[in-house]
Design goal:
Order of helices and strands: HHHH
Distance between the termini: 39 Å
Largest sheet: none
Number of helices: 4
Length: 77
């Protein structure tokens, strides 16, 4: 049991996949001006396509191929 508002896990920002991570990636210039969720989606697709060459491979590999959330997003094989 943890107390209310007690931190149980912290993930350093360098491990976040967010618009800031996309901006400094190879596709950052292409994503400039896109909606943040679009740039992150393109980043995930790009990293998935890189396969073993992606430094994000271990993370990408554990993502579901699809979700039944209201947003519906897919990672291409």
């Amino acid at each position: 049991y943890t107390g209310r508002n007690e931190v149980v896990l912290e993930v350093p920002k360098k491990y976040w996949i967010n618009p800031d991570a996309v901006a400094v990636s190879n596709i950052g210039p292409v994503c400039n001006g896109l909606k943040p969720w679009v740039s992150v989606a393109l980043f995930l697709i790009t990293e998935k396509k890189l396969g073993v060459a992606s430094s994000w491979k271990a993370y990408i590999d554990i993502l579901p191929l699809y979700t039944d959330s209201t947003i519906y997003w897919y990672v291409l094989n």
